[in-house]
Amino acid sequence: MQYLKSVVTLSGLVALFVVGCGSSAVPLDKLTDAKATVRAAQEAGAQSTPQAALHLKMANDELASAQKAMDDDKDNDRARLLLNQAQADADLSLALARGTTEKQQAQDAQAKIDGLLKQAQ
Questions:
Q1: Domain limits of the chain?
Q2: Which of 1, 80, 97, 111 is the most exposed place for a label (fewest CB within 10 A)?
Q3: Residue 26: strand, helix, or coil
């Protein structure tokens, strides 16, 4: 019985060591999310807004670096960090692109209102 307890304890410690020292899992979910947000920013017109385009480029660069870290270096922790940065830049790019679009729509609506007010006078 004592032997069995020792084996179970030793197995548990080995498992914890392997999990603690082993490389973390490939962050495929983060990669997919970041790529989707980059695509959304592109579709929202991020290339036509300088600040949005800058953050979109940064997100794409970070995605490429993360992919390289996962493929070549097998450094999943670095890849996860780069994917977090890519996600943040892609989110910012998307928000800036949408903000520019919404600002343009508001200006267009204001111009229509001004035109209707002039016609009414």
A1: 25-105
A2: 1
A3: coil
Residue pLDDT, tens place only, 13-65: 444 444 454 456 878 899 999 999 999 999 999 999 999 999 999 999 999 99
Total Cβ atoms within 10 A of residue 68: 14
Residue 69 near residue 79 (C-beta atoms within 8 A):
yes
Distance between CA atoms of residues 93 and 56, nearest Å: 6
Of 79, 87, 26, nearest to 55 (Cα)? 87
Instruction: Give the angle 79-95-82 at the CA atoms, nearest 5°.
Output: 10
Please say whether the beta carbons of 73 and 26 come within 8 A. no
Residue 66 in contact with residue 86, Cβ under 8 Å? yes
